[in-house]
Amino acid sequence: MSQLPTFQFERELAALGYKAVVGVDEVGCGALAGPVVAGAVVLPPTFRFAGLRDSKLLTALARERLSEEIKERSRGFAVGEASILEIASLGLRAATLLAMRRALEKIKEIDFVLIDAWQIPGLDLPQKGIIRGDRTVKSIAAASIVAKVYRDNLMNELAKEYSDYGFEVHKGYATKKHLAAIKEKGPCPIHRTGWKPFRPNIFDFLNKE
């Protein structure tokens, strides 16, 4: 059984006087299409309900339910995006940090920032990057759920506009069917065409079928 996230970090920070601790996580970094999205959530210290964990360990239905509950019961939540053009011009890391900053800017009260794996250079707030934070820290797990549901819904809408690629199924990630669709149709405007999978010969393995 996987480890469940706890309030350990939030409690330790509260004991030091930090009352508004925001968890931050990103989704979409590894995708071939669509924006990168960051979630930011401030949970109340009494926040309790079953099932809160890293969004990747949940079913789509469970994520939807938990996202709504997080939004209703949190002290604050927000999402931030970085577009395809920003990813292309800034690079993935800088674009992801930009999405995180945009999410944080929408939260009214922040004393401390807990981030899954990352740290945000130049952030004018105390912060800590926690490896596997989405699996161990409740506020980061909550942020991962809010961000994942937001981005999945966005990709579902984009799938209606670009119906040849199956974005509603794989959400822009590099599944075999997605790569096959790119090989057949070529990239569409929401693909990150500067990435390695769009370079020559990356689809050679498909020719062996």
UniProtKB/TrEMBL annotation:
Q: Which domain of life is it from?
A: Bacteria
Its annotated compartments are: Cytoplasm
Needed cofactors, names only, are: Mn(2+); Mg(2+)
Which of this chain's residues are annotated to bind a divalent metal cation?
D25, E26, D116
Where does the signal sequence lie? none
Tell me which EC number(s) this protein carries.
3.1.26.4
Answer whether the UniProt record assigns the keyword Flavoprotein to this protein: no
As its record notes, the protein acts as a catalyst of: Endonucleolytic cleavage to 5'-phosphomonoester
How the cofactor is bound: the record states: Manganese or magnesium. Binds 1 divalent metal ion per monomer in the absence of substrate. May bind a second metal ion after substrate binding.
Q: Which GO terms describe its biological process?
A: DNA replication, removal of RNA primer; mismatch repair
Keyword annotations: Cytoplasm, Endonuclease, Hydrolase, Manganese, Metal-binding, Nuclease
Tell me, in a sentence or two, what this protein's role is: Endonuclease that specifically degrades the RNA of RNA-DNA hybrids.
Output the HAMAP family linked to this UniProt entry: RNase_HII_B (MF_00052_B)
Q: Which family does it belong to?
A: Belongs to the RNase HII family.
This one is known as Ribonuclease HII
Organism source for this protein?
Candidatus Uhrbacteria bacterium GW2011_GWF2_44_350
Lineage start: Bacteria, Candidatus Uhriibacteriota
